[in-house]
Amino acid sequence: MPLSDRKIKILQAIINDYIATAEPVGSRTIAKKYDMGISSATIRNEMSDLEDMGLIYQPHASSGRIPSDLGYRLYVDKLMQKKELDESENQFLQSVVFQNINHIDYLMEETAKAISFLTKYTTIISEPVINRTILKQIRLLPLDDNSVLLVIATEENFIKNHIIHVSAPIPEEDLFVISGIINDILQGHSVDELDSETITELEEKLGIYKDFVPSLIHAVDATVKSAEKVQVHMSGTKNILAFPEFSDVQKAKDIFQTLEEKDVLVTLLGKSEEEEDGGLKIMIGTENNIQEMKDCSIITASYKMSETTRGSIGIIGPTRMDYSQVVSVLNTMVKNIENVLKSLSDNNKNP
Amino acid sequence: MPLSDRKIKILQAIINDYIATAEPVGSRTIAKKYDMGISSATIRNEMSDLEDMGLIYQPHASSGRIPSDLGYRLYVDKLMQKKELDESENQFLQSVVFQNINHIDYLMEETAKAISFLTKYTTIISEPVINRTILKQIRLLPLDDNSVLLVIATEENFIKNHIIHVSAPIPEEDLFVISGIINDILQGHSVDELDSETITELEEKLGIYKDFVPSLIHAVDATVKSAEKVQVHMSGTKNILAFPEFSDVQKAKDIFQTLEEKDVLVTLLGKSEEEEDGGLKIMIGTENNIQEMKDCSIITASYKMSETTRGSIGIIGPTRMDYSQVVSVLNTMVKNIENVLKSLSDNNKNP
DNA sequence: TGTTAGCACTCACAAGGGTAGAGTGCTAAT
DNA sequence: ATTAGCACTCTACCCTTGTGAGTGCTAACA
Description:
The structure is a homodimer.
Chain A: H1 5-21, H2 27-34, H3 40-52, E1 56-57, E2 66-67, H4 69-79, H5 87-99, H6 104-119, E3 122-126, E4 135-144, E5 147-154, E6 159-165, H7 172-186, H8 196-206, H9 212-228, E7 232-235, H10 249-260, H11 262-271, E8 281-283, E9 296-305, E10 308-318, H12 323-346
Antiparallel strand pairs in A: 1-2, 3-7, 3-10, 4-5, 5-6, 8-9, 9-10
Chain A binds a DNA duplex through helix 2 and helix 3.
C-alpha cells in the first residue's frame, strides 16, 4: 500500500499530538485540531490503513492510536523537520561550555546538567579518554619529606595529579633533575608506550635514584589507569518521573536500576561511534535491545578531537520524545565541545 | 502519666515492627509476635495511654498505631541500643576509604556510594573545605607557549590545578624563579590572607614579570573560589523509590526536587556542626523544618581534621528508618575518614 | 470511487455499593 | 489489674454500573 501524502499528514498529526499529550489520538481529535478538510470518518479509514502498515497501533481495542516504533522511525528518518534553537538557548549552551573550559570534568558535568535542563530528558556523557594521547609534561614537585607530587599534562592540556610516598626525602634540585630525565624519555610519547625497555632506560639514567623508579612507574601507571576508566556523567534522571509513561513507580525503578549500571551506559554511548557521518545515532524503543528500556528512545552523538572520537553524549527519554529538539540540542553541544577541545589543543601549536 | 517498663516495651515493639513493615501495628500483632505475657486487650489499654502521651497515633480511626515523631525521639534518645557492624561491613567501609586515599573527590563519591549501598538510604556528603587551610606549595609549570600550569598544594596535601593563559611565552627558568618568589610570600599563609598588601609585595618582587601578577592572582583566586564552593556528593537517591511511603510518584518527585537544591543540602549538613560532642545530629520528621521532608529523618555527622570541622555526612530516609544501623555506619565512616585525613596531614609533620 | 453520516459496539475509567478483615474502645467478669 | 467479649469503625477489595471516547462497518451521497 502506497503512503499517500494525506496518510503522511495524518501520521505526522498523530505523532505530534502524542508527543505533546501522551494520550492515544483519536480520529475526531485530528479532524478538529488539525483541520485538514476531511471528516473524522475518512481519517478513521486512513488510520486503519496506517495501522495495517504497522506505523501506529491501538493500546486496546476501540481506543485512539499511538505511533509504533516503526512509526517513529519513519518520522525520524523522513518526516521530522529540523528545529532551530533560539538565540537564548544557543547562548546558554555556549556559556556552559566556555565557563568550564579549564576543567574537563566540571565541563562534562555541567554540560550534562545543561542538556537535561533544556530537554527535560536524562543526559549521559562520557569524558574524553586521555589514553593514547601524547604526554607533554611530567613533573615532580616536593610536597614534604614523605611525599612527592607527580603532575602529568597531556598534549591536550588535561592535567592529572598523583601523590607519591617516599621513604626518604628527596632534595628539590634532585627532583628537578629527575623531572628533566623523565620528561626527556616520556615527553612526546603516549602513556601506553611505557614498556620495559623504557623503564630500563629510565632506571639507568636516574642513577642513584634508581630505587625511585618502581614507585614512579606505579604512580604513572595508576594515573593512566584512572584516566583510562571511562568516566560517565549523568544528569536529570529524576526527570523520568515527570513522564506519565513512568508514573508506575516500579517501571521508574527498573529504569533507574538499569541506568545505574555503568556498563549499560558505556555500551549505549559506544553505539554512536558506529555512525560514520559525524551524525547522531537514534535508537527507538526496542532498537536498543535492553529489555527494561523498551519504552525509551536514546539519541547519542560523539564528539571528536583531532579526528578521533573522544567521548559521547546520550539523551534518554520516552519513545514519545521530542526528537527534533533533542537532535538540535545535541548537534549544537557537540559543536561547542569540539570547539573547546580544539582550542585547548591549539594552544601549543600556535607560535 | 509515668512511663512504665511495660509501656516502654510496647512502644519499642511498635517501633521495631513499624520500622520493619511500614504497616500500622495493632495490639494483636504485638501480643502474638512479641509474647510479653499479657493479652491484646491489656496492650490496647497501654497503647491508648501511649497515644495520650503523644508517642504514637492512628493514621485513621480503628487502625493500628504508628510511632509519632515524638515517639521516635524518645526511642532514639533513650531506648535505641547500639548495633555493632559486623566484620565484613567494617572491612567494606574501610577498604572504600583506603582505596581512594589520594583523591579527595573520588573518596567522597565512593564513600557516599558505599553508605547508601549499606543502608539503602540516600547519602549526602560534603567535601572538606580547603579555605583557611595553609598553603604549602605553589608552583608554575610550563605547558606551552600560551599556557602555564598553576599547581597549588595545601598543608594537608589537597592539590588543585589551574591553567593560566599568557600572551607571551615565559621561559622555564623564569617560571622557576617566579614560583620561588610566590612561594616565599604565600607559603605558610592561608588562602584568604591574600590582601592588597600581599599583592603589592608580589608585584614588587616579580619585577619584569609584574604584568603577570593580575592573571596569577586571578588564577589563585579562581582556584580558591572553586575550592571554597562546598562540594556536595549525593548517592542512592533512587533508593527512595523503594520505600512504600513514597510509592506515590508525586511525593517522590517532591523529595527529589528538594534534594536537588544544593542550598538545602548544605543547610542540612551544616546542622551537624552545631553538635558539640563530636556526636551525630538526628532530625526526626518535622524537626528538619523543610515542608517537603516532613516524612523524612536526617542523621548527620561531621568529620574533623586537626580539631576543625571539615565536612559532614548525612543520611536521609523515611522517619521509619533503621536509626541504630545508620548511627553505627555513620560513626564508623567518620572515624575512617578522619584517619585518612590525619594520615594525609601527618606526612609532613614526621621527620 | 472516494467521502461522509449514522449507528452499534468496545473498552477504560470513575463512581457507587457490598463485604471481609483488622483493629479499636468499652464493659463486665475474673 | 487483667482479660474476654462484643459492637463499632474504617480500609481495601471486588463487583457492578454508567459514561465518554473512540472504533468499524454499512449505506448513502457527490
